[in-house]
Amino acid sequence: MKRIRVVLADDHTLVRRGLSSLLARDDAISVVGEAEDGRELARKVKSLQPDIALVDISMPLLNGIDAMPRIHRASPKTRVIILSMFSDDAYIAQAWEHGAWGYVLKDEAPERLMRAIHAVFAGKKAFSVDHVPKAQSNPLTQREREVLQLIAEGKKNSEIASVLMRSLHTVRNHRARLMRKLGAHSAAELVRAAEELGVVRPATPKGWD
Q1: Neighbour-count burial of 92, counting CB atoms closer than 10 A to its CB (0-12 exposed, 13-18 middle, 19+ buried)
Q2: Where do the domains of the chain lie, and which CATH numbers do they carry?
Q3: Beta-carbon neighbour count of residue 47 at 10 Å?
Q4: Which of 40, 138, 185, 196 is 20 to 30 Å apart from 26, CA to CA?
Q5: Alpha-carbon separation of residue 37 from 2, 119, 206 (angstroms)
Q6: Model confidence, pTM
Q7: Rounded Cα gap, residues 204 and 195, in angstroms
């Protein structure tokens, strides 16, 4: 019997270890790799060519939603299941629009995740909702979303250039274009726009995490 080869992506080490232990209970599933951000995930998928990528949304450098185009280019056969704490329509719709095969909430029973992995491997969609909402129009290109996330994470232009492997001039142009498109006049307004577009997770008030 062919085992289902899975790559896990979550920026929390304990979560990855817990998921790995959970999936190890199923003899039909083999965890072949782990990643802690979307860029590392794309590299792992390219080298490992897994059947399934189990992906968190909120990851540094590149979130799970915006990592999907890279995953599809790196390994067209790999099917993405989003595993998230967010039940918001906007996130579910974006996952669907970006080609996710499944969307499972982190507070669901472990058996739900196992069933989703087997269903997706068999070629069936596995979303934890009865109806997938329609995604809102997105004014930004994929590259602009990537730059916006890095800005929202507090990275300087030089750091963004290093992550994207682009010139400082190119990054400055992206930032200026983002401010025009989003009507932002400061970095703080860009951060708010990133949160509204679902590019980054809204900041958690102190004492709530």
Answers
A1: buried
A2: 4-127 (3.40.50.2300), 142-196 (1.10.10.10)
A3: 13
A4: 40
A5: 28, 25, 24
A6: 0.79
A7: 12
